[in-house]
């Protein structure tokens, strides 16, 4: 039984597209007419404790080691995007994580600039939760995320016996 795909269980061979909840459609957390709209690739750059410097971006270079790519919709909210980030980026799953969002994009002279767009908390509501990419006039900018986790630096030093999350 050579199972190249790595995920097709050999004992049920019924690949009904519509019957299979895991065929990639689990990203539509709020399905607002999304069947009719194509998702697109959102390039997200995530860094702990601060935004990236726009000088790290140019037409040829981006901080690739910090990039995660997610497929989403123009009517995705910032809150939803944090959920998608958590699927990929384990550190972001901390229950008190804070996500600050910014767009990084070239201005009219081609110089990359950063514009903050909102903040979302894992453990409490924020007035920015429901802002959508459309509300922000999204036009394929890079999404930069400053991820803050409380005491991530000191906790490992000060309390060696505390359970790791």
Note down, in words, how this protein is organized.
The chain has 165 residues and is mainly beta. It is built from two helices and five strands, in the order ββαβββα. The chain has a five-stranded mixed beta sheet, with helices on one face. It is globular and about 40 Å long. The relative contact order is 0.19. About 20% of the residues have low confidence.
Provide a quick synopsis of the model.
With 165 residues, the protein is mainly beta. The protein contains two helices and five strands; from the N terminus they run E-E-H-E-E-E-H.
Write the layout of secondary structure elements.
Layout: E1 40-48, E2 67-72, H1 78-88, E3 98-106, E4 112-121, E5 142-148, H2 155-158
Parallel strand pairs: 1-5
Antiparallel strand pairs: 1-2, 3-4, 3-5
Terminal CA distance reads 38 Å
H/E series, N to C?
A: EEHEEEH
- Side by side, the strands of the main sheet go 2-1-5-3-4
The secondary-structure class comes to mainly beta
The number of distinct β-strands equals 5
Helix percent band: under 10%
The biggest beta sheet is recorded as: 5 strands, mixed
Shape: globular
Query: What's the helix count?
Result: 2
What integer is the average pLDDT? 80
Backbone CA Rg: 19 Å
**Portion in beta strands:** 15-25%
